[in-house]
Design goal:
Length: 314
């Protein structure tokens, strides 16, 4: 998955450079979304391989090594075709990959007698990815599920690729660092992790149920991810890699900024007098959340979990 992440990162960097020079006609939401399939998902898969039992997910890891990058590139190509069945056909490989990964994760969760925290995180993150793929499919077909229009449809795909898929994996990464802490610290982490794991689904439900529920769930997500960043900061002192420490610290700072913006937006949305408009949210919250919190977090924890070479290997 390292090769996929490197190729995906180079592809996304080229897209970002073309976007900044106005050589391509992508919106900021579309550009940030493409970071998900190209970079975030392969980094998340790499972190899963390092953290979970390989035997349980060996088939998924094998398929992902061959399928993930081509499917992600097909999703990128779909944005050069106007929303239509042809555009949806290009998204189909990514949709199938997301559904396949979700099915494997749920099967392993249901049949597992002992469910460690890492398995719970993986079992929730991949179904979230599948939901995000479904909303991407709807976006590229030009559909309006439950009456929602663009850019909300694509933003929902963004939400489930980042907050849904990636954030639980970051909680999984930091959980190993709090096992030996005091009982109070561990109990608070359980509450924080529960908010990170359940929050994306509850927030999506809030959009359907009503504004009060949407406000409450947005605040749950914001508070949970902000609290998770505090665990990031408390854990970096025990890491050997200086580079990992830098990335994780940047991730923690970014999520604090992003969640403050999310809370301000949610409070303003309740009386339908937003303090921060949707385009501004996409630009500032979206950038801080995707590039700062998620991307830097995945890179940092992947570096932190890298084995330290022995004296004979140096």
């Amino acid at each position: 998955m390292k090769r996929s992440a490197i190729i995906g990162g180079a592809t996304w960097a080229a897209l970002a450079a073309a976007f900044l020079s106005t050589r391509i006609h992508l919106t900021i939401i579309e550009l940030l979304f493409l970071l998900g399939p190209l970079v975030v998902v392969p980094l998340g898969l790499e972190l899963c391989i390092r953290t979970t039992d390989d035997a349980q997910f060996e088939f998924l890891w094998t398929i992902a090594r061959w399928v993930q990058l081509p499917a992600a590139l097909c999703a990128v190509a779909s944005f050069w075709v106007s929303p239509s069945p042809a555009s949806a056909a290009l998204v189909a490989p990514w949709f199938c990959f997301g559904c396949f990964a979700a099915a494997i994760a749920l099967k392993n969760f249901v049949w597992a007698f002992d469910r460690p925290f890492s398995l719970v995180c993986v079992s929730l993150s991949f179904p979230y990815l599948a939901v995000g793929c479904a909303w991407l499919m709807a976006s590229r077909m030009g559909l309006m599920p439950m009456g929602f229009q663009e850019p909300i449809v694509l933003l929902t795909a963004v939400h489930f690729h980042f907050a849904g898929f990636a954030a639980p994996l970051l909680a999984m990464a930091v959980e190993s660092k709090v096992k030996n802490r005091g009982a109070l610290v561990r109990r608070f982490f359980v509450a924080v992790a529960a908010g990170v794991l359940a929050g994306p689904g509850l927030l999506a439900a809030g959009f359907v149920i009503g504004p009060r529920v949407k406000l409450a769930m947005a605040l749950v997500v914001a508070c949970s991810e902000a609290a998770l960043s505090l665990y990031f900061l408390a854990s970096i002192r025990g890491l050997r890699s200086r580079l990992a420490q830098a990335f994780i610290a940047l991730s923690a700072a970014s999520v604090l900024i992003a969640m403050v913006l999310a809370a301000v937006w949610a409070i303003g949305e309740f009386p339908l007098q937003p303090f921060v408009h949707l385009n501004e949210m996409a630009k500032f919250h979206g950038t801080a959340n995707s590039l700062g919190f998620i991307l830097c977090g995945l890179v940092g924890w992947s570096l932190a979990d890298r084995p330290v070479p022995s004296a004979g290997e140096k």
